[in-house]
Amino acid sequence: MNSLTGKGKLGKTIQVRLVSDFQAAKRYYQEVFGCQVDGWGHVERDEMIFILQQANSPADVQPNTRSKKRNDYPTEWEGPDFGWDSFIHVEWTDFDLLVNEFQNNGAIVAVEPFTGSHGEYEFKNVIFHDLDKYSIVLGAMRKSI
Asked: From the UniProt record, which GO molecular function terms apply (predicted)?
């Protein structure tokens, strides 16, 4: 068998963020989200990992805008009402704990916690901003009860 005919395994995906103030961004992720942050700009907590990089210009920092709605999802959902830069799935029972922790640490709340449904599932989301207005969505989902 030729070793180039199979599929290779992809590793963990790490998001890279251009930031307007590298030192301030490192402090924010450490103090607000409780992340381990090193001198390289690696930001880690549990399975959430980012790499922060200093932008050449503030104009280079461009968080996502809201995506176009679409009607071909497998449920009635048509897409988010806000721009998402990162979606971090959390356990249902951890959601309120994390929201309280981050708010107590001074997180910038872009969208207060809200609930909804997708077919047979219910969800809870909250959107935090970092200092450059990147949207960090915490989301929990479970089968509706």
From this structure: lyase activity
